[in-house]
Fold this sequence. Notes:
The chain is mainly β. The protein contains no helices and 5 strands.
Amino acid sequence: MVEFSECSSLSLNYDATGKVTASLGVLRDDSGEIDYDNYTDPRWGGEDFDLIIMAASQRPIIGGTWHEWSLSMEGVTT
């Protein structure tokens, strides 16, 4: 199993209270579940985040065994 973040899909938005809304694409070489724990406590751009996954969806990439996951998360920087 190979799984990796699609870095160009990373989007981070902050509101006035400091809440972070993040979205990210993850590619995996089979249809199994991704390891959600890899994405709830990441370090991006020199910042540590504490995130909760609010939504996750999977879709196959046509012509192969790869699948793309879309994650929507909310949380704070720590």
